[in-house]
Design a protein that fits this description.
four-stranded antiparallel β-sheet; 2 domains; SLAM family member 5-like; alpha+beta; transmembrane; Immunoglobulin-like
């Protein structure tokens, strides 16, 4: 219906004060995952037509029943209409994040309203995105600090202990007061959650093992150096004796 599209274009570009347009409701925040799907939902009745706009570009129109006109090649094959006229985004990319507006025409009396959306697109967190970085110090006792590093933006990180004791986190580092406890780091964004469990005692054991290995290596190196020194000394003595004997024989012959 061409006249409907014309009215929608007029609504988009003319000031709302002239058209007496109103808001369909509060702005909606919608979360989606990269390569995932998301729906920009509508909550209106008697809908005739919807124009979808982002960055002042009218990129699609939908109607109840699933009909859709895609007006921008960037969205070709990724947008679908739903039974109530809502817009179904598929194969989301980070570039899809932004502000969207649905300009809605309802009837039987011609009436316009607009619904705004804030679409936020996140990357799904994977187990390999998390790494626990330990810091071990020794001063009579083993002290461990753990830093939970996560590859991702807008990520919330929390620590919990196996005995539900108080957690001491300073500047993102967990200061372990009891190395016999088990701790779990959990990271989540709006579309995914990952976690990793860690036993701080292992780092104390590794630290002792490393020191022991270093001491063993140092002893072996010292022993090797000693043997080399003795061998070189013996060689010098032998060469000296050989040269001395040759010198005596030469003098006797003269």
């Amino acid at each position: 219906m061409i006249y409907i599209h014309i009215w929608i274009l007029i609504f988009i570009f003319l000031p709302k004060s002239i058209l007496c347009a109103e808001s369909c409701g509060d702005k909606r925040t919608v979360f989606g995952a990269v390569r995932g799907d998301v729906v920009l939902p509508l909550n209106q009745t008697a809908i005739k037509d919807i124009a979808w706009v982002t960055a002042n570009v009218h990129f699609a129109s939908t109607k109840p029943g699933g009909d859709i006109d895609i007006l921008n090649n960037r969205y070709e094959g990724r947008l679908y209409g739903t039974a109530d006229g809502s817009l179904n985004f598929t194969k989301l990319t980070s570039e899809d994040q932004g502000e969207y507006t649905a300009h809605i025409l309802t009837g039987p009396k011609i009436k316009f309203c607009e619904q705004q959306y804030d679409l936020r697109v996140f990357r799904t967190l994977l187990p390999e995105d998390m790494e626990i970085l330990p810091s071990v110090t020794r001063n009579g006792t083993c002290r461990v600090s753990l830093f939970c590093m996560v590859n991702g933006s807008d990520v919330n990180i929390t620590w919990i202990s196996s005995d539900s004791s108080a957690i001491n986190v300073v500047n993102g580092s967990l200061h372990v007061t009891d190395t016999d406890n088990i701790f779990k780091c959990t990271a989540h964004n709006s579309v995914s959650t990952i976690s990793r469990t860690v036993n701080p005692q292992r780092y104390c054991q590794e630290d002792v093992s490393d020191v022991s290995n270093l001491q063993t290596m140092s002893t072996a190196e010292n022993s090797l150096l000693c043997r080399v020194f003795i061998a070189k000394s013996i060689a010098v003595v032998i060469v000296g004796l050989f040269l001395g004997i040759n010198l005596l024989l030469t003098r006797k012959q003269n």
